[in-house]
Amino acid sequence: MDRDRETESRGEAKEPGAPSSEFDARLYLRIVKKRWWLITLVVAAVVGVVAAWTMQKPKIYEAMATVIIDPQAPKVLPTQDVVELGAGNFWDSHEYYNTQARILRSRWLAQEVVRRYPHLLAVKAVAGSVPGKEADSAAGYLQAGLVVSPVRESRIFGIGFRDTDPQLAAELANDIVAVYIEQNRAVKLAATNDATRWVAKQLDEARTELGKSETALYEFKKANNILSVNMEERQNLISKSLDGFSSALNETKKKRIDLQARRRAVTDLMSGDETNAPSSYVAESQTIGPLRAAYLEERRKLRGLTDRYGEKWPELEAQQARVKSSLDDLRAEGQRLLHSIDAEIKALLEAEGRYGAEVTRLTTEAFDLNQKEIEYKRLTRDAVNAEQVYALLLKRLNESGLQAQDQTNNIRPLDSADVPTVAAEPRLRQSLAFAFLGGLVFAVVLAFFLEQLDRSVKSQEEVEQVLGLPFLGLIPSVKQAADTPIRELHIVKHPKSLVAESCRVVRTNILFCSPDRPLRTLLVTSPNPLEGKTLMTVNLGVAMAQNGSRTLLVDTDMRRPRLHRILQASVEHGVSRVIVGEGALDDAIKSTDVPNLFILPCGPLPPNPAELLQTERFLALVKRLGEKFDRVLFDSPPVMAVTDATILSRIMDGTIVVARATKTGRDGLARTADQIKAVGSNLVGIVLNDVDVSGPGYSRYYAYKYQYYGVPEPEKKGAEG
């Protein structure tokens, strides 16, 4: 309850039914203590069954031999083996050793052992096998009894066999080791022989292919006249010739172009178009150059005379004759040069034709040779490849022949198997230990599973932490003693009993719930019938009356009223008659044998209790009772059965819900609390009734209380009402 107040003060109020997130070891310990008998029974049963089963099993003996498996076999020849005996490198060791372990367990090895040692067909394990299947049965028998135990961080393997006959177990373990070592070597030899035969066959084919390749290359050389000179040298010769003729052709073309330029210069000179701007050839020519210079000089003189003396000067005619004579000499020389240049151009054109034809021929021949080179290289490549394949196969054939004689092995025996004297199975102590641990775990899991299936409320922690509801206290189981025929009056007859003290604790908690605004009218209800609400109403009323408060018990359970029978009051005049106005309130209220405790019975049962409780007369009645008494406790029907309690809770100062330990379900209690809060009622708290205080979690605490109060411990008895 204090924890709930602290939670609410921090604004962290729990929702009803919300599971607790805190780990409580005591809760689990209580579950174990509560169901210790189930745990003990299950453990004893499991241990007993395992012990009986173990003791009836036949004795099994295990004989163990050991071998060393090296990662690599010794290298005798500097060649690569056809089959590597071993891992080959460090990184493959894990896979290699796993493979060897699988080979040891394989049916193939078991069949090899049976073939090598046919006396296994007569062992008792296969004596009853199907005719014709004796070998398969023997192999299966070997696989079933084989034990392979790799030694960690080493290269040692333990190879053992289990059987009821220790002599046979040792013999079979040694036989399996011998066959395993021999088969490891035989696998290498068989693979080498197969490789040798395959290489020999391939060598014959390679020899034939090499002959064909060499013949084809020879025929090609012969057909293309490249027997003495290889293809590369011939290509070089053609390339050089082609370069020479191409250079000559280019040089001839250059000379022809130069001559054609000279011819144009001479032609221009003879036409008189280039007298002022002669070409370099004309200017530098030793024959036509002086003639041109003389011609120009005479013309200059003619212009000078004309400009000075006029056109009628007598000397002009003579000068014009000299100009004409110079021009005739120049043209005659030009004509001679043209004939000479034309002859040279013609010769150069003929040379160009011959050079061009030769370049074309050499180019065509070069292309043809390139085409032949492709075929030549292909034939050469085929011949070289065939020769290399032949040489490789010949070398490998010689190596395989030597490897076939190599008897090295990477597996060697270490210790042989001795005849065992102590049985490996059954291991009684180990079996019992595992049975005890397994049975204990199973029993504890079963106990927790059954506890999970049990959804009833059993402790204060479940009310507060699991459901998140305020807790007022718990009431121990009430014994119906001989001096107390009515259990509900136990607190009256035994005021120093544990039940009485528990009721006073609940009374005190209720008083402290609202110190500023006293809770005068209190409704006592429960989720379901027979959960102790009437017992709680009576005992709480007695505790309040003993505290000096004028207390009234009102029976508003107008369906199954019981307060009048417990307190021996008349039921003729009660709540129902007061509400309908058929009697006075003071006449209906009855005193009891307990000082300060009064009772207002239910009265005659009405046909419509719920409607009656919602009338204005009933509200006025509740108000009057609150003014007349210090405390008024209303006993009502269960919340989940009818709506009477929900209606009553709205007009009360507070509501107390009674739950019966191990009977009231968590879900029902949570729904009851939700239903009361949903109508705006004040849920004061939960009282857990009929608690077995001698059970786990309560025995030590309440044993101290018994000693403190000096009263005998109550017997277990359900409290209903």
What does this structure look like?
The chain is elongated. It has 24 helices and 12 strands. It has an 8-stranded mixed sheet with strand order 5-12-11-6-10-7-9-8, with helices on both faces. A 4-stranded antiparallel sheet has the order 2-3-1-4. It has helices spanning 2-9, 25-34, 36-55, 93-104, 107-116, 134-145, 166-223, 231-271, 280-284, 288-309, 315-403, 428-453, 460-466, 490-493, 498-513, 533-546, 563-566, 575-580, 585-588, 609-613, 616-628, 644-650, 666-678, 699-709, and strands spanning 61-69, 146-150, 156-163, 411-415, 471-476, 521-525, 551-555, 590-591, 597-600, 631-635, 654-660, 683-691. Strand 11 (654-660), helix 23 and strand 12 (683-691) form a beta-alpha-beta unit. Helix 10 runs antiparallel to helix 11. With 721 residues, it is an alpha/beta fold. Helix content is 58%, strand content 10%.
List the helices and strands and how they pair.
Elements: H1 2-9, H2 25-34, H3 36-55, E1 61-69, H4 93-104, H5 107-116, H6 134-145, E2 146-150, E3 156-163, H7 166-223, H8 231-271, H9 280-284, H10 288-309, H11 315-403, E4 411-415, H12 428-453, H13 460-466, E5 471-476, H14 490-493, H15 498-513, E6 521-525, H16 533-546, E7 551-555, H17 563-566, H18 575-580, H19 585-588, E8 590-591, E9 597-600, H20 609-613, H21 616-628, E10 631-635, H22 644-650, E11 654-660, H23 666-678, E12 683-691, H24 699-709
